[in-house]
Amino acid sequence: MTTSERQTAPADHDEARARMRAVVIPAAIMTVLETLARAGFHGVVVGGAVRDALLGANGGDWDVASDATPQEVIELFPRTIPTGIEHGTVTVLSGSGEQRHAVELTTFRGEGVYHDGRRPSEVVFLRALEDDLARRDLTINAFAWDPLEAVLTDAFGGLEDLRAGLIRAVGDPATRFAEDGLRTMRAVRFAAAMGFRLAPETEAAIAGALSVFDKVSRERVRVELIKLLAAARPSLGLQPMASTGLWDRVLAPLEPVARDHAIDACDRLPARPMLRLARLLWPVRYDREQVEIIIDALRPSNDERTLLLRLTSELVDELALAVELPDDARAPVVRKIVAELDATYLDDACALLELDAQTIAAVQAALEGAALTTKQLAIKGADLISAGIATPGPQLGVLLAQLLDAVIEDPSRNSKDALLARARELLAAGDDS
Asked: Which ranges of the sequence are coiled-coil (predicted)?
């Protein structure tokens, strides 16, 4: 949910309750809640979907919690899957046909000591809703809504924090962060995604939990970082990452001036997370080993890794210099750079350099109709073989690459006759040498 999609927070509890009553909850979920109630149990919807509904967004993924134990849920509903029964979660298959819905139903629970900063040593099933909400990470994620009784539970001041634009931990922030190190990253991510700021005591507690954060899998960290970088103003999360020490655990340590410039640039760039991540790595781009270590630690896909490596390569520096050349000298240099960079990454490279529209137009004009790969040449290897100029083997590839260089220098050479003539010249020159 983007900041532009949100309404202002409810002015008071009555307005909040009125907004929730207007929300349409999927019929399959309502059926589950009604079945629980008839059996004497208490069921509610909880978490982020409630928060978003309070801010005017209908829909979303509804989490359901109740005071029924997993075994009681299995006995109550005819179709269930024990998806996470050790953590109190049972999937209830509710409804039929297009209305069929897999409802994840989690028992109110408390958790034991987090020995590794990631997983509780034990899960204790509870009967009290507020005790369950007390284990949530942030106050704005600790709402519960009972649509049958029209009761909104806000035990930790989440509404007040929504109105104030604050990201605040539930209860003692040091305790919350010590339980699960990822909560530190979630806090800064929510600050960026919501357009909020961290409550002072919550921000202050992050530094003390860095050793716990270090135990979190990089895959989980990556998910939070990507969501942060997709926000309208990633600086709202990146600045507290820097001030609390999280930055140096996730990204390359930078001098304050370079770091601040990178953060400011992220706010200006299009909301493409990999592009913004490349900008955060830009100040250390000449240390290729460090760049690769940071990228690989975040477990990117192969395509993402290639994009990040291309955008932090010296080719982007060369493009920045090439666009400053006089008009008559610019075009062949730009074509050569883009051919090596791969035109697939050109738009992101131009965005990273923050080129203006006029300069981008000049780059596009230099590439108009130009061949940038051997596949775009007006001649194929088979043509060179049939003309008796080349034979199958590695040297054929070398010759095609030389022909591409000639076309990049002068696109008018990209015709079959011209390329055959050029190939013969190259062959003759090779024989002479």
From this structure: none
